[in-house]
Inverse folding.
């Protein structure tokens, strides 16, 4: 077990002449929850898509648990769980069918697959929804299925793109609790627009603006300085 | 890993009513054609006996049914292939596949094989239909084999092309119309050629299938079908890889 689960070096991405993301250097330790903040269009989603192998970087390298994502994508991706902004759900499947498919896709062996399914459902509060069609579930439950899909194979790095959007306050609290739990054994990257969410659940915060990281501190450091996250955010991104 | 994708594709196909409706319709149309040919055969059977070396039941009934099946396949392939990638993109589920530890080749080949298994089932039903003729006499198994093989290869070509066109868009309907247009074009392209040995004949999928339909297993036709199929599968893989590279 390596302590560093995810590291990137000088990660860049251009779309034509437009630079979406430049020189991102990330180091993530096991048991750390990183909050990624930034105004719309700051490059958060682009960064996450690169970290999960959905988008090839223009320059730079990504290592997941010491495995180079660009050279050995399949081995590296096995350590990764990803919930995109819009949860990738097959509406015609039941929750169980979908999660089993996700588990097989992540190469879980047959004997493990059913315990993993039960475990993921239990963690996301989906125990009694197994036989429901995904299309009949409410937004909050669909979001939970999305998270269950990302954690079913017990990945070392979990990347969640705005996991609490569209949820009611109770569901939000539950998801936050879940993220905290996940952060004990794995590393979590969480992008969000809700500053209090970061203050509550993250160990470290990075703020992105116009494609670069403009702020990177642990929550403890921030508290010592006595500055609020909101002040920092407004200062840096306006 | 391919098996996971194949299973998922078949699962999705058979949970929707589309597959069942198509299976029923294909069977209805082909049985209708089959019975029509059988009727005609029984009427002219007496006259056929008077000529030397008369065409058998396989040539007069089975071959036309397979020719008809090829046209039916051309019509339904776009309906089946349209959702393969276009719908994944529209529902944002392509991200799930792309972030999973599975290669692009596995995804595409899995989807292709899923569709081919469906076609293999349809073809098995057609063969069963033809086997019912054994109740009344003998059939030419060689001709039946070449027809089955030709139909399977031609279905593989249709599927590969449909899959590629589905990878170009996020709208399943556009994928269907595009695939139908291209398939029809490839089907009738030889009409534009006047002389018999014109190069356009070689491009036409119909011309190559005709060989199999008449019982001729032509290596160059097999080569054409396999080249056609692999070309479009590789193009699809490239297309999705390109999306990852260019965003």
């Amino acid at each position: 077990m390596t302590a560093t689960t995810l590291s990137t070096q000088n990660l860049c991405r251009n779309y034509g002449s437009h630079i979406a993301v430049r020189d991102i250097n990330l180091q993530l330790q096991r048991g750390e929850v990183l909050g990624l903040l930034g105004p719309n269009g700051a490059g958060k989603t682009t960064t996450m898509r690169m970290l999960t192998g959905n988008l090839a970087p223009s320059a730079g390298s990504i290592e997941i648990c010491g495995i180079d994502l660009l050279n050995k994508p399949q081995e590296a991706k096995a350590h990764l769980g990803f919930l995109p902004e819009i949860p990738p759900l097959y509406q015609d499947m039941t929750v169980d069918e979908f999660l089993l498919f996700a588990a097989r896709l992540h190469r879980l062996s047959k004997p493990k697959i059913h315990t993993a399914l039960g475990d993921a459902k239990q963690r996301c509060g989906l125990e009694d929804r197994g036989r429901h069609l995904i299309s009949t579930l409410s937004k909050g439950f669909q979001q939970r299925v999305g998270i269950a899909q990302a954690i079913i194979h017990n990945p070392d790095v979990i990347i969640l793109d705005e996991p609490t959007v569209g949820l009611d306050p109770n569901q939000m609290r539950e998801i936050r609790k879940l993220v905290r739990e996940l952060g004990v054994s794995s590393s979590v990257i969480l992008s969000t627009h809700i500053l209090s969410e970061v203050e509550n659940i993250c160990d470290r915060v990075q703020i992105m603006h116009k494609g670069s990281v403009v702020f990177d501190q642990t929550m403890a450091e921030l508290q010592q300085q006595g500055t609020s996250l909101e002040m920092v955010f407004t200062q840096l991104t306006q | 890993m391919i098996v996971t994708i194949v299973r998922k594709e078949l699962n999705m196909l058979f949970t929707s009513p589309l597959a069942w409706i198509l299976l029923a319709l294909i069977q209805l149309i082909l049985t209708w054609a089959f019975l029509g040919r059988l009727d005609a055969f029984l009427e002219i059977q007496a006259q056929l006996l008077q000529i030397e070396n008369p065409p058998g039941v396989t040539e007069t009934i089975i071959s036309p049914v397979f020719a008809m099946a090829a046209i039916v396949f051309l019509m339904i392939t776009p309906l089946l292939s349209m959702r393969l990638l276009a719908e994944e993109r529209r529902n944002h589920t392509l991200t799930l596949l792309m972030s999973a530890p599975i290669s692009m080749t596995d995804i595409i080949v899995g989807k292709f094989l899923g569709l081919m298994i469906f076609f293999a089932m349809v073809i098995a039903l057609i063969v069963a239909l033809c086997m019912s003729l054994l109740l009344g006499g003998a059939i030419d198994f060689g001709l039946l084999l070449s027809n089955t093989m030709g139909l399977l290869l031609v279905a593989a070509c249709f599927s590969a092309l449909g899959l590629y066109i589905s990878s170009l868009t996020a709208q399943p309907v556009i994928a269907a119309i595009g695939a139908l247009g291209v398939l029809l074009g490839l089907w009738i392209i030889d009409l534009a050629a006047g002389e018999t040995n014109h190069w356009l004949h070689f491009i036409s999928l119909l011309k190559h299938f005709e060989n199999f339909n008449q019982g001729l297993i032509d290596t160059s036709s097999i080569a054409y079908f396999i080249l056609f199929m692999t070309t479009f599968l590789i193009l699809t893989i490239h297309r999705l890889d390109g999306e990852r590279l260019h965003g």
Observations:
- Residues 169-185 of chain A form the longest helix (17 residues).
- The interface with chain B takes residues 13, 15, 52-56, 73-78, 80, 82, 84, 86-93, 97, 101-102, 104-107, 149 of chain A (CB under 8 Å).
